[in-house]
Amino acid sequence: MESNQIRNLDRAQYLDSLEPGQIATIQKVAVDEGLYQRLAALGFRVGKSIALIRRASFNGPLQVRVGNTDIILRRSEANRIKVKPL
Amino acid sequence: MKRVALLGMPNTGKSTFFNRVSGASARVGNWPGITVDLMRAKILLGGHIAELIDLPGIYDLHGFSDDEQVVRHFLTATKVDLIIIVANSSQIDRQLSLALQLKSLGLPSMLLLNMSDEAKRSGIRIDTKKMSEKLGMPVMQISAKYGENCPAAFKTASALLGTQLSSIDPEQVEHQLEADINIEHEMESIVQSTVEMPIQLGDELTTRIDKVLLHPWLGLPLFFLAMYVLFQFIFAVGKPLQDGIAWLLAMLRNDGLEPLLANTPTWVNGLLLDGIYNGLGTVAAFVPIIILFFLVMTMVEDSGYLSRAAFLVDALMAKMGLDGRGFVMVLMGFGCNVPALMGTRVMRSKNMRLLTMLVIPLSLCSARLQVFLFMTATLFTPQQAPLVLLALYLVSFATIFITAMLFRGQYKNNEPFILELPPYRFPTARQIWLRGWHEVRHFLNRASNFIVIGVILVWALTHIPLDVAPASDATLAGKIGHLFSGVFGPIGIDNQLVIALIFGFVAKEIVIGALAVIYGLQGDALMHLMAQKLDWVQGMSFMLFTLIYTPCLSTIITLKNEAKSWMFAGLSIVWSLSLAWTVSFAFYQTARWLGL
Question: Can you list the alpha helix ranges (DSSP code H) found in B534-565?
């Protein structure tokens, strides 16, 4: 019961669970240091807003937009980026 | 001599600026990571000769990929007098990080906000004066593509070089690089006070085109359709040009060279006309098609569609242990395998790089295309020829698939796949012209080096000793071919053609040159004779072998250099030779068994 309540309060999700067209705020980027740097350079910084544009078919990569940059990344990376939908 | 380096994130137009300033023709394209090597040019800057260096794009000075290490090594080993940071104006909100990192290193720098044309179009306004004050370095907006504001940027760079008294010691840079700094807040505050961005972001036209081209189930069929149309265009325009050149070359020989050389000894005449002239001429006839091919490639590369292709096929590539970038490298390999191999430097995982490098040489490059255009025109009807060519492209993909599936376990990796999707762009006429010219020069270079040497050697082998029938079994070539007959007999390749394949190891252009020399003819006459001597099953087996075995010496050397291992280059050679033989054997024997 209690844990359910917490889950309801904390609306945090991961990037791969967004729907196309949905906008969210980046809350945490939980990846190794090398990848963290690359993502940061591409604009994935905590507090920035991110939009999911589309998903490729056959469980392929996601297209997202951060700032003025469109980026594609696989779901395996996207599910390590914590977001809060707006 | 003063040294000036261009530095910036991938796909910000460093090479375009480099070409603009130096008049060079470095390869440019709308793909992050198209420059993987250091390009250098001498330029006149403020009355001094300076060396301008175009560095590969990097995301972060502390990055881990091979190209980022190349840049870091360059900065810590070379004394640089000025760093020109190139950034995409539209993405300055994140690309400013690199300028801040450089500022903290204390290297004399200036910042060029490139692609001002695109930024203006999307309503992004940047207060360069204020940004310059905050950063403590000159900041200017330019468009390297259209040359806007470039002279002014050039002038500022000269002035900076003139006043710059102290530049930092490379060792100091190395020391500074180790100290990590937090630039996030600084970046945020500078961007907020100097950049005005509209709320609705993203290029609208790009968004609309992507809706169609990246459609969940229309995307892939449209990709194949686009490729098909482009190839049709290349051949429809290229074929008449090719025929025209072949006609001109034949006329030059009959009416010019033959009377001129009539009094020379038979063997000199033979070497010059049947050897060098026929050999080179047959290869040269393909130049227009190859140039067209590269012009189309340039447009595809510049359009930004390659990244979209990577998006569409990544799911399939993942099953093969590769990723969407690997697919793009294979597409680039259709032009030439060498730059495609070097393009794998953007991958961070060594295993994924090696696996990608193992499959790239199987991609049907433009040199092999020349052989196939020639052979299909010789052995098939005009209706059949394009289908055979298409089949060869499919075989190329199939061998890539088989190779990746077989070696996937050997080169396991969990390389993350992250790629920028740039907006659609169109190259300027100047860019297309530069690229076309670059390819012509590249071809002439190859022609003047090993193609000439190759055809001379083939001529010598097929004509020595001089007292026997040319290209017969009694010649050196016949004897060498005989040595290999146990290997090539079962795949239907006769002793003379073996010589063409042996020299094809050096470069595939030599193969057609060699055919002209072996049969002592060129143009239509050569095709007629070959059609008599070879049946289509043998020809097909020959083409399959040519497609799959090692593309050329340059590719092998590049493989060795990129993998830093002769073992790996050796593996690639052994694997491609065995696969080539097996496929040709299976094809030839099956066809014969079916009574074809």
Answer: 536-548, 553-563
Cα of A28 to nearest chain B Cα, Å = 15
* Domain tally, chain B: 2
Q: Are B197 and B124 in contact (CB under 8 A)?
A: yes
Cβ contact B60–A40 (<8 Å) = yes
What pLDDT band is residue A2 in, cutting at 50, 70 and 90? very low
- pLDDT at residue A5 above 50? no
Q: What is the pTM of this model?
A: 0.88
By residue range, what is the domain housing residue A17?
11-85
Interface residues of A toward B, Cβ cutoff 8 Å, are: 31, 34-35, 37-43, 45, 53-61, 63, 65-74, 76-77
- Give the CATH number of the domain where residue A41 resides: 2.30.30.90
CA-based nearest residue to B473, from B495, B499, B503, B497: B495
**Per-residue pLDDT tens over the stretch A49-81:** 999 999 999 999 999 999 889 999 999 999 999
**Domain annotation covers residue B425:** no
Residue B424 resides in a domain: no
pLDDT at B179: 59
CA B83 to chain centre: 28
Q: In chain A, how many domains are there?
A: 1
Chain A residue numbers with beta carbons less than 8 Å from the beta carbon of B219 are 56-57
Q: What is the ipTM of this complex?
A: 0.89
Domain check: are B387 and B520 in the same one? Answer: yes
Structural domain containing residue B62: 2-196
What is the rounded radius of gyration, in angstroms, for the C-alpha atoms of chain A? 13
* Closest by Cα among B481, B357, B494, B495 to B413: B357
Q: Please give the Cα distance from B84 to B112 (Å, whole number).
A: 7
Cα–Cα distance for residue pair B22/B51, rounded to 1 Å: 10
B385 with B254, same domain: the answer is: yes
On whether both B396 and B439 belong to a single domain, the answer is yes
Indicate whether A4 belongs to any domain.
Answer: no
What local confidence, expressed as pLDDT, does residue B202 receive? 64
The owner of tokens 């690997």 is B326
* Non-local CB neighbours of B507 within 8 Å, separated by 6+ positions: B367, B446, B450, B451, B454, B552, B553, B554
Q: Does A2 reside within a domain? A: no
